[in-house]
Write a structure and sequence with these properties.
Blueprint (H helix, E strand, L loop, with lengths): L1 E2 L1 E4 L2 E8 L2 H4 L11 H29 L2 H15 L1 H14 L3 H19 L2 H21 L15 E5 L4 H7 L4 E6 L7 H9 L3 E3 L4 H4 L5 E5 L4 E4 L3 H22 L15 E6 L2 H9 L5 E5 L1 H5 L7 H14 L4 E5 L27 H6 L2 H15 L9 E6 L5 H20 L7 E7 L2 H5 L1 H5 L4 E4 L1 H8 L18 H16 L4 E3 L7 H10 L3 E4 L4 H10 L2 H11 L5 H15 L1 H5 L4
Parallel strand pairs: 3-4, 4-5, 5-6, 9-10, 9-16, 10-11, 11-12, 12-13, 13-14, 14-15
Antiparallel strand pairs: 1-8, 2-6, 3-7, 7-8
Bound molecules: phosphoenolpyruvate and magnesium ion.
Phosphoenolpyruvate (PEP) binds next to strand 10 and helix 19.
Length: 589
């Protein structure tokens, strides 16, 4: 039994499908002279098959998800065609008798080392893409054909990877993936977000797991407890099958509440909203009973492009999202790039010493005013869709706001965008302007900032990592990065109270919003609007139906005097179990 971080609840059993085996176990074999031509031919064949795959994937993703999400596969095809890439592989096969897999492994090592030193932004940005292409090629070269569709692996899959690359995550949508296990990562890593948004059990931070498991093994993922079992004994497997069924039934039962209003047991109405990354996510949001979209992370639109999408393209996508969203209630967050997500065409510097505390998010947008204005205008233009008097609301959300000066500057850009649209006679609609509350400085001065915003959205993922000075994606310190720590509890309480006193609508859109234990606390603090991965909405709704505000307030009274995270966690767990043992099982550790 392996113990990692519990990042997405539930139990899943399936056949292991290992991605990135190549980087863990490089092929050490040296070719005999007579094998060289055959190896070159094998490499060419793998290239051809990869090219066919990528073209098919591009067409499929374009059809099923959208053009912008599919753009990444065009980039991958151009990498595959790049002579510099292929000539090196061929050279090492011919001159050094490396196998094609080993040559690809060396190529990857060379690129990684080079990007670290050279600071070539475009190449650095493409490192992940190159890795992606190398993985695909390697899949065709490896003995165990590492391609989910062609491998003959059937039935439910458990994806095991070092970390999930963006395109893998997109492509995963097509396979029958029941669980995800990653070596790297944390509660808020890409893999964790994807798993939660799809309701797939997942465990992260299991370093070395790829050395212990191979494609084809039977794997159990216990996403609520952070446990992974490889090739379990029959009795253990039978017990997990039972658990898997129970989780499945429980989720099914909960999802049946999608048409119920989100109201607490004592009649307080709540807004349960969805966090989305693309148009496709809106469908799951609606299916799970979301009232609207509380956070649209637009950076995924930029991450899948190799140039700035123009205003019209942005407008079309925002409009489509608005059209499909329940109650046509959408909160669009302006670009929140930086930290772990970089976009070379915006001049991102990968060698920044402290990227999470550096040039990211609104700080970067301010330095690209033309681009920033195009996004603001596109948001205002999509709001024009509601000017016919139909129900709905478009919110424009600025991320990482640190101080009053920044908020004033953002407001100034909003006015400028309004003026330029009006001058050109382009229709625009009414938009509410808000800020993400995720920098501790902003939490301390919340009263000043409230004078400048129409609403506040608490980004607890970042707020927690900045308050605790512990990187949310670094497994060495992520243990300190605890949403249920006393400092976070006090800060959240102050912010929510300040917003409520000022009558400024406040939502929390970090991962905490979907955690049953945290829900009790947040409700008791006076929060009435929660935005989360769609898969959590039925669980939180059910919990709301079983909880009274009065009870939640009593919980808060007790928790504010607690001095340690463990004490708070244990107490909330107990309270949750008393309300519903079933829902307590859907809480991650
Ligand atoms: C947050 O910081 O809580 C948040 C919702 O934003 P992101 O996770 O995209 O940084
Ligand atoms: Mg954030």
């Amino acid at each position: 039994m392996e113990k990692g971080l519990a990042v997405s609840p539930g139990v899943a059993i399936g056949v292991a499908y290992c991605i990135l085996e190549i980087f863990v176990n490089p092929d050490r074999k040296r070719l005999e002279k007579h094998e060289i031509q055959k190896e070159l031919a094998r490499y060419e064949q793998a290239r051809e098959r990869t090219a066919v795959d990528l073209a098919a994937l591009q067409a499929k993703v374009e059809k099923q998800i959208g053009k912008s999400e599919a753009a990444i596969f065009a980039v991958h095809q151009s990498i595959l065609r790049d002579p510099a890439f292929t000539n090196k592989v061929r050279k090492w096969i011919v001159e050094e008798h490396l196998t094609a897999s080993a040559a690809l492994h060396r190529l990857m090592e060379e690129y990684s080392a080079m990007f670290g030193k050279m600071g070539d932004e475009y190449l650095q940005e493409r490192l992940n893409d190159i890795r992606d292409v190398v993985v695909r090629l390697s899949a065709y070269l490896s003995d165990v054909l590492n391609n989910a569709e062609d491998s003959g692996l059937s039935g439910p899959l458990i994806v095991i990877a070092d970390e999930l690359l963006p395109s893998q995550a997109v492509a995963l949508g097509e396979a029958d993936v029941r669980g995800i296990v990653t070596q790297a990562g944390s509660q808020t890593s890409h893999a964790a977000l994807i798993a939660r948004s799809r309701g797939i059990p997942a465990v992260s931070g299991l370093s070395g797991i790829l050395r212990k498991v191979k494609t084809g093994d039977t794997v159990v993922v216990h996403g609520s407890e952070g446990l992974v079992s490889i090739n379990p004994e029959p009795e253990e497997l039978a017990a997990y099958r039972k658990l898997e069924r129970e989780f499945f039934n429980l989720k099914d039962q909960l999802a049946a509440n999608r048409h119920h209003p989100a109201v607490t047991r004592d009649g307080t109405p709540l807004k349960l909203l969805a966090n989305i990354n693309n148009v496709k996510d809106v469908e799951s949001a609606a299916a799970m009973g979301a009232w609207g979209v509380g956070l649209y992370r637009t950076e995924y639109l930029y991450l899948t492009h190799d140039n700035v999408p123009d205003e019209d393209e942005q407008f079309e996508i925002y409009r489509e999202i608005l059209k499909k969203t329940p109650h046509r209630y959408v909160t669009i967050r302006t670009l929140d790039i930086g930290g772990d997500k970089t976009v070379a065409y915006l001049g991102h510097n990968h060698n920044e010493a402290n990227p999470f505390m550096g040039w990211r998010s609104i700080r970067l947008s301010f330095e690209h005013p033309e681009f920033f204005l195009s996004q603001i205008r596109a948001i205002m233009r999509c709001a024009a869709e509601l000017e016919d008097g139909s129900e709905g609301q478009v919110n424009m959300l600025f991320p990482m706001v640190t101080n009053v000066e920044e908020m004033r500057k953002a407001r100034h850009l909003v006015r400028k965008a309004e003026k330029s649209l009006d001058e050109r006679g382009i229709p625009r609609g009414k938009v509410k302007v808000g800020m993400m509350l995720e920098v501790p400085a902003a939490a301390v001065c919340i009263h000043h900032l409230l004078e400048l915003v129409d609403f506040v959205s608490i980004g607890s993922n970042d707020l927690v990592q900045y308050l605790t000075a512990a990187d949310r994606d670094n497994p060495k310190v992520s243990g300190l990065c605890q949403p249920l720590s006393p400092a976070v509890v006090i800060t959240l309480k102050n912010v929510i109270e300040a917003c409520n006193q000022a009558n400024t609508p406040v939502t929390l859109c970090g991962e905490m919003a979907g955690q049953p234990r945290a829900f009790l606390l947040l409700l008791g603090m006076g929060l009435r609007s929660f935005s989360m991965s769609p898969a959590f909405i039925p669980t939180i709704k059910e919990l709301a139906i079983l909880t009274t505000v009065e009870h939640a307030e009593r919980v808060v009274e007790k928790v504010v005097s607690m001095k340690t995270t463990n004490q708070i966690k244990r107490f909330l767990r107990m309270e949750l179990e008393a309300i519903s043992p079933d829902i307590a099982r859907l809480d991650t550790e």
